[in-house]
Amino acid sequence: MLLWSVWSAVLLLTPLEAVEVDDVRAGCSTAVNDLVYIVDGSWSVGFSDFDTAKQWLVNISSKFDISSHYTQVAVIQYSDTPRLEIPLGKHQAGSELIQAIWSIAYLGGNTQ
Ligand SMILES: *[C@@H]1O[C@H](CO)[C@@H](O)[C@H](O)[C@H]1NC(C)=O
């Protein structure tokens, strides 16, 4: 089982490396990235700071070229339980992703 996992990781990495060598030289914004943000949505954060966190996600994500070719973004919010807000690669345009981040509703719940 362990051997299988290592092997499948190698198989998955090979195409990404090929893409990187071929056409990615300009830096972080056009590097191949899968970004997964995990956001605290418990009551101890508060509405105002939760909005600041969303602003931060928007600011950071705006620096990347959002597309299936370069950067894919996922967002998970958690408190008592995690909630998948944006699945990896759902949005293939920066404007669409930013709108989706802004529309994430504050979960609330216990601090974990
Ligand atoms: C987001 O970017 C704006 C413009 O650069 C900046 O004024 C603001 O402080 C940033 N906010 C966060 C939370 O990163």
In brief:
The protein has 112 residues and is α+β, with helices and mostly antiparallel strands. It is 42% helix and 19% strand.
Feature tags:
single chain; alpha+beta; Rossmann fold; 3 strands; 42% helix; elongated; binds 2-acetamido-2-deoxy-beta-D-glucopyranose
How would you describe this structure to a colleague?
This protein has 112 residues and is an alpha+beta fold. The chain has a single domain, classed as 3-Layer(aba) Sandwich (Rossmann fold). The protein is 42% helix and 19% strand. It is built from 3 helices and 3 strands, in the order αβαββα. Strands 1-2-3 form a 3-stranded mixed β-sheet, covered by helices on one side. Helix 2 (47-62) packs antiparallel against helix 3. The longest helix is centred in the first third of the chain and has 22 residues, at 2-23. The radius of gyration is 16 Å and the shape is elongated. 2-acetamido-2-deoxy-beta-D-glucopyranose (NAG) binds next to helix 2. 2-acetamido-2-deoxy-beta-D-glucopyranose (NAG) binds at residues 52, 55-56, 59.
